[in-house]
């Protein structure tokens, strides 16, 4: 069964039009080619899928930080 | 063209419609008499009224994105509204046929002008359904760039690195006719050597089709141009593109010249939202044919606006008779909206692609949906099956709602 992180990476690859294999935690968003359009599209798709509202104030620099931020929001919703 | 204006060649064609992916498939279907018009159910979703069926001509969606991605060599996904996605596909095809992908001339000496009657309807309807129909009211953050009428030309410019004049035009059913005229004008005025022109349209959505239905302009069965018992148009989705190029530029780089653009006639009825005027149609056709010097030619292939509405076809038949007089019965008339539906802003560009292929093959594709003769439409209609023709020139007509008319004349490149 796919982990939450795998699901998020699939969505980011789809919405950001990025090769899934490039998406490693250590890479920066810029390194993997995730621009502002890719970020807002990914966030919208994640909000749709998990029924959450993701704040706009992410300070994520690397993909790992971005994933941790997203997973935090989704886990908080699941526990609520 | 005026005598001082440069000759304008066509060096590439692209098409995407219910008749097929690419100009060759589209032409083969039209020549064979295949119709892309079929009943289809449109479901507005849980917050709307019941689903309804409409007879429309849709682009085959299965595998479409994958084919476009393969032709572009990169991912596109769901990043564009269909009207921009379609434009990207036909732009790629036309530029590839012209041998211009990656060419230096594209960067500074090329224009892109596309016409659309509507913009981003799929995206807009989705956004409105979410906003008005759902408690979250959440709307996709890229709704604005996806619904811009200039989204297709921006997508094309970014994809192929075009940095010259790039813009969209709109005049309902004449939009791509005006786009072609604009592209020719940019070449004639020296602002570019090449103009990628055309149109795209994607309006087959539940609310948009309801609006057309309420207007009473669409047929419950199919488009039957110039036929007795015709009862309206069939809407279609798709796109078409032509590469226009200064003829000496095309020759200098060894490009294959498919045709030349020899006449442009533009007029406005200044009369009515939905009813055509004889004067407006005659004016556009006379201007285009006069410029092309072919009012006295023996045989011209006429690709009619031919929407299948009672009023348009009667008016257009009268206009053809008025313009050509005793020569009118010698001009074969085709009406391919009976096969690919009415693509509104992309209609005349698609009919141009099909018409030029018909001219170059010497085969006129048949009008479909025919039920019987209407004495008000006494023209030399091509019926039943494709007909061998001798015509060397093609006249294209588009007479739009709001009274905006374009007629264009092309001449085939080489004698058969």
How does the SSE layout of this entry go?
The complex is a heterodimer of chains A (80) and B (416).
Chain A: H1 4-16, H2 36-50, H3 63-79
Helix pairs in contact in A: 1-2
Chain B: E1 8-17, E2 20-21, H1 23-32, E3 37-42, E4 52-57, H2 64-72, H3 82-97, H4 105-108, E5 110-115, H5 121-133, H6 143-147, H7 151-160, E6 166-169, H8 175-188, E7 194-201, H9 206-215, E8 235-236, E9 238-246, H10 247-252, E10 259-268, H11 278-292, E11 300-303, H12 310-324, E12 332-334, H13 337-340, H14 347-361, E13 363-364, E14 380-381, E15 387-388, E16 393-400, E17 404-412
Parallel strand pairs in B: 4-8, 5-6, 5-7, 11-12, 11-16, 12-14
Antiparallel strand pairs in B: 1-2, 1-9, 1-10, 3-4, 7-9, 10-17, 13-15, 16-17
Helix pairs in contact in B: 1-14, 2-3, 3-7, 11-12
Explained architecture:
The complex is a heterodimer of chains A (80) and B (416). Chain A is an all-alpha fold and 80 residues long. Chain A has one domain: Non-ribosomal Peptide Synthetase Peptidyl Carrier Protein, Chain A (Orthogonal Bundle), CATH 1.10.1200.10. Helix content of chain A is 56%, strand content 0%. In chain A, helix 1 crosses helix 2 (36-50). Chain B has two domains: 8-252, 3-Layer(aba) Sandwich (Peroxisomal Thiolase, Chain A, domain 1); 263-412, 3-Layer(aba) Sandwich (Peroxisomal Thiolase, Chain A, domain 1). In chain B, 35% of the residues lie in helices and 22% in strands. Chain B contains 14 helices and 17 strands. In chain B, the strands form three sheets. In chain B, strands 1, 2, 5, 6, 7, 9, 10, 11, 12, 14, 16 and 17 form a twelve-stranded mixed sheet that branches. In chain B, helix 2 (64-72) crosses helix 3 (82-97) and helix 3 crosses helix 7 (151-160). The longest helix of chain B is centred in the first third of the chain and has 16 residues, at 82-97. At the A-B interface, helix 2 of A face loops of B.
